[in-house]
Amino acid sequence: MLNEESLRGVMVPIVTPFDEQGYLDIKSFKRLVTRLRNSGIHGLVVNGTTGESPTVGDSELERMIYEARIILEELSLIVGTGSNNTAAAIKKTARAKELGADAALVATPYYNRPSQQGIVYHFLALAETGLPIILYDIPHRTAATLDLHTVKTILKMDHVIGMKDSTGDIKRLFQLTRTQSKPILCGEDDLFYASLCCGSKGGILASANLETQQFVQVYESFRNGKNQEAREQFDSLTPLIQFLFSEPNPAPLKWLLAQNRLIRSDRLRLPMTQITNETAQKAIRFK
Ligand SMILES: O=C(O)C1=N[C@H](C(=O)O)C[C@H](O)C1
């Protein structure tokens, strides 16, 4: 299982491939997991935002955890188990643990807009699952804003091993890395290098589904004190990152993965839609 010392490096939130009819394409999933495992990543995230978690069914998720666990062997497996229903989050997290997950990535409860105290209780309640928890702060998707005090309160909980910061607020990230002993991970791809400079311990980065080794190199160069090299490696990735977030993630990512024959189809489940022809035209250079 993961802990606050081992939670670091480049972790990839894998896409959930669907076939043309919209069914889970487990063959593509297994192939992609194998490719990522062989690319030097430090961990894999199944059922993240990039994995289209809102439209993945329980049995589909169980199948993906089961298959990923086998392929990854000792490599860390993190599963997205967030919900705006605390009881459902507990159930999902406990099931992920049974199937061999090393930690759960739990987004703050969305839509019902709980109080700061309610959010604290939500994370406290997850202790009973026995699985290490990573707090996932992504306010532009959840519409749940975490006060700094709330973040610090949650990070103090024994079962919470760290945090993924997708606020895009580098000042806040810097404040957290300076005051908190638990790892803060970057969840905003275009800030990955900057976050390392500010003390993050790595990132959970959708873009690293592609050019995986290059993202790992940025992390390794930085860790080895080769800052200039890390910066240059990261700079060469920024046009790709910009393209991948030019429409809602993971639509551009699925399109490029399909174009590169890494998955069989760029199909998403509604309400997510495939990229427009105009966006596809801009992406020809990445093929
Ligand atoms: O799935 C994830 O984890 C990520 N999702 C973010 C998003 O889609 O908003 C982006 C980040 O790269 C990781």
UniProtKB/TrEMBL annotation:
It holds the Pfam family DHDPS. One of its GO terms (molecular function) is 4-hydroxy-tetrahydrodipicolinate synthase activity. SUPFAM superfamilies: Aldolase. One of its GO terms (cellular component) is cytoplasm. Its main location: cytoplasm. HAMAP family: DapA. This is 4-hydroxy-tetrahydrodipicolinate synthase. The lineage of its organism: Bacteria, Bacillati, Bacillota, Bacilli, Bacillales. The gene is dapA.
